[in-house]
Write a sequence for this structure.
């Protein structure tokens, strides 16, 4: 049985909901988790496939294949990956930024943007280190997922904070969409069950295409569980892309090149895709 990691954020709901709606969820095992949890589980072999942080592929490329033409991406304001700052981003040089313990891709992205786009050298602390007292001293922080989306939708405009959408910042910097997650599969799973993997990949394509044409229906079904109004969910999903076209591949390569330059990953990896035949 193929074990599939399921991100518990709104950006992943359409494909997983479509798999279940279309009766394509069997015979797979679904294991929920935050992006960073799924990264660790995929690397440890506790799951076989997941929409994982792009950064995870950059760390361990020889262990994985990428599923072609699938991603979680955006070329506009996405509202669920945010930098909230006490000062304008142009003034963050030398200041402390609180990274998210839930997202490797976003943590690397803000470090790239602050260094390469704004020329800042900042100090960084993870939210998991909050007990040290450093978290409360941070001048800016990364928030992702449902927490960020809810905060954005319900934001108090009277708060004395600056809010930046990382997808939009990347677009302004590179002119390219940002790829937050890739559908990644362990190579050993392909060797073990290639025919089943091929069937699953086709099911994912079918679910992706179905989801895109049924956002409204699925939003009505999911709004209570996600605590996000259906109309906001539809707008959110429409701001995302679930394919992996040439522009997104170019963006991925730029992201990995910058990550290597800043020594966030050992080397910018080649993109190696699962081939069915």
């Amino acid at each position: 049985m193929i074990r599939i990691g399921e991100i518990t954020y709104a950006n992943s709901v359409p494909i997983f909901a479509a798999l279940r709606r279309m009766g394509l969820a069997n015979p797979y095992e679904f294991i929920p988790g935050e992006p960073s949890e799924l990264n660790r589980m995929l690397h440890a072999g506790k799951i076989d496939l997941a929409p994982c942080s792009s950064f995870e592929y950059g760390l361990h490329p020889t262990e994985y294949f990428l599923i072609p033409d699938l991603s979680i991406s955006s070329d506009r304001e996405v509202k669920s990956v945010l930098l909230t700052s006490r000062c304008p981003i142009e003034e963050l040089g030398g200041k402390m930024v609180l990274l998210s313990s839930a997202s490797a891709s976003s943590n690397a992205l803000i470090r790239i943007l602050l260094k390469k786009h704004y020329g800042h050298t900042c100090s960084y602390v993870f939210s998991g280190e909050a007990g040290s007292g450093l978290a409360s001293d941070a001048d800016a922080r990364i928030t992702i997922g449902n927490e960020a989306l809810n905060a954005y939708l319900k934001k108090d405009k009277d708060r004395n904070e600056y809010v930046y959408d990382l997808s939009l910042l990347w677009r302004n910097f590179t002119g390219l969409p940002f790829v937050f997650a890739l559908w990644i599969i362990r190579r050993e799973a392909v060797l073990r069950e290639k025919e089943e993997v091929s069937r699953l990949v086709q099911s994912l394509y079918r679910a992706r295409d179905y989801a895109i044409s049924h956002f409204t229906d699925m939003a009505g079904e999911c709004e209570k569980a996600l605590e996000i109004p259906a109309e906001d969910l539809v707008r959110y999903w429409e701001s995302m892309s679930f394919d992996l076209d040439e522009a997104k591949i170019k963006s991925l390569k730029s992201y990995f090149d910058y990550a290597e330059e800043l020594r966030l990953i050992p080397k910018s990896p080649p993109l190696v895709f699962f081939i069915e035949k």
